């Protein structure tokens, strides 16, 4: 085709041309190929200068400039792909800026990102320098800030320095991983932020920057400017606006077109696309479907599977289901999905959009056949049960050791035998295969990877070595954590073993949010009754003890000061326990949303409880020591000196218990559970701190116990020896027997206290743990038993003593009759 006949035609719509320059008859202006090549990678257009006269001009791409796009812009060519670890249904704004060392913005762009819509897209962004040529003396970097568009909250930032400044075009490829939670501001920043908060970059924790409030800019957020963005928008520097949902444009004053009415079916809601893109690979709108439906417009119903558990089986925290789709002349296709099982549920419901023939349930390392169908199952409602008879045993349980240890090639020829010899066997497995027994009692095996790594493809958000499972390798919409034993929670955040066990971990998942106390589970109601009983009993017991020991006569010696302090400590302990329980109940029910209050109780209340209980044990040991010294010294015992020593020892006891437990509050923090919509108080010890904590528990338990027992035995034997010397009519053994009867309370009291505190130590030493939040009774009772000594001060120290009983009676008489 000749140049004279080769043309490109552009139609000029009449409605886009002013009346003065209106061209009649919808004229077509021909652009010849020769003219098209005049614009280097640009778009040739004709501009009307006057009637019937047009001037050829070029619209250049961002990479070039000039009247014919003949010059190349110095720039940063950025290829960006984003991977979300959570919030797949939330839209984010990624602000991309080319900045210098003084945080001056050379150029910027932004991306509207919705994971379920854009997870597989690579975004290409050009960032131009503000001057031509660029200033080579400046060190520039690409900074990326992420914002949640629904809440307009800041999420995180990344920084990428331009390493080779001499290149005219610096190409940068980035795979961003959006963090699970919002970044936490730093307490200190260099330089300090005047009107902003200090943060560190995700990919460079040592580098800090100031995120300025609206109306402020600069490296220290100390330069004021007037924000001209639309209301509810975020102002970033002087000329950047982050638009909320439903708005777009340079100043966010333009309304984003909504989706057509009834575009999304079956209850789905529509998310409009970025108006700046018209390419087919960027969808203009996306339907976010409810759990039961899928498709571009939520037009397809997912297969619903209701799974229950046989009475003989323990219900796990989560269930892994493997769907097998049989293919002709190809290996079966395996799709796996994980489902959490709520604390109060005895069955589980899951949905899948995949067609399948076979389904296996995997729980606690065992496989069960739950669905078997010759034709593929699509959009069906299925009810099934996991029963022991449908368990798939291992070949190591079916064959003897000789066959089991053979190589697979030699061993697999025996795989027909289990189906033929065991008529009720329906499946079995080895290290590589899963096998079914068909109707003719022949085994049908297919490859099955038992060693699949569940770490959410390198983005594991589970704590404490939990396995992370996503429902799709490229574009996930959900993730689930499978926890090791002794841990549970949506992120395996709760340790339920040993000394880290807390009331939050024992009872937290038993509290249902947003329902009244009357609708709570039995264990919650039982705990309410138990804590109330402990509080009331402790209140009266310690009040009566305080009345008894708060007299001049009882405080005449150091022992009285110890007993008085013990009653005060025990009274505070039962009060703090009551406060702890009701704050936990209120926060998990959703009645308290004050994060500062929740954080304060998380750090201080459990710490104070541990300190108070340990202080009570040591004070009882101090009482025993002074009684032993009294017996040992006899009439030379100095009461005044014992009071001085008691005051110092009480102070030392408090300082030592606080010092030995100080690691506890610094190891506590709050985490937000998005799946459960709750906030949890977590204790996380390093292995060395865990060992230290165990040693401290042993110290605070064994030493007071040993001191109490040794002192009691010393008092009895020493008294018997002195009496036998003075009264020789009776033998030493007879005097010892008499002293045992007279001072038995000295042995009974520490023994009772030790027996009640023993569960706390036993729990610390247990090799096992609370395997499930469904069975917390042993740990719940053990936790509360350790607080019973704080309720028994009156019964242990006052009632066994005739002197203290008389003093209590006199104090009550003075109270009533005065």
Automatic annotation (TrEMBL):
- Main location, first listed in the record: membrane
G-protein coupled receptors family 1 profile domain location: 541-797
Q: Which residues form the signal peptide?
A: none
Disulfide bonding pattern of the chain: 193-210, 212-221, 289-298
Keyword Cell cycle tagged: no
Under Gene3D superfamilies, the record lists: Laminin, Rhodopsin 7-helix transmembrane proteins
Q: Which SUPFAM superfamilies match?
A: EGF/Laminin, Family A G protein-coupled receptor-like
InterPro entries annotated for this entry? Dev_Signal_Modulators, EGF, GPCR_Rhodpsn_7TM
* The entry's keywords: Disulfide bond, EGF-like domain, Membrane, Signal, Transmembrane, Transmembrane helix
Parts forming coiled coils: none
Cellular component per GO?
A: cell surface; extracellular region; membrane
Transmembrane segment boundaries: 526-549, 645-663, 698-720, 746-765, 777-799
Record bears the keyword Metal-binding: no
Q: Which domain of life is it from?
A: Eukaryota
UniProt GO MF annotations? signaling receptor binding
Where is this protein found?
A: Membrane
Q: Where is the EGF-like domain?
A: 185-222, 255-299
The identity of this protein, by name, is EGF-like domain-containing protein
* Organism, as annotated: Rotaria sordida
* Upper lineage: Eukaryota, Metazoa, Spiralia, Gnathifera, Rotifera
